[in-house]
What does this fold into?
Amino acid sequence: MRGLTAWIAAGVLAALRVYASKEETRSNVVTLTHESITPFVNGEALALVECVAPWCGQCQAREPHYEAAATALLKEGIKLAK
It folds into this structure.
């Protein structure tokens, strides 16, 4: 049982390390918090906000496409956030 716990802990730490390294890179997707969402939404004429769970496989698979869309739409003055 100890071996399984160690493997699970190592997997979780590896996933967190990958997620943290992704957050450090420059992104055109605005990362919102509970405090920043209302001012962001009220300050934009048009924006798309995605609800994301960092552990969700579908969210992770969609992330590169969402980033590409954010880069393309930024030229049109439309911001994407998560």
About this structure: The longest strand covers residues 47-49. Strands lie at 29-30, 47-49, 79-81. The chain has a mean pLDDT of 80.
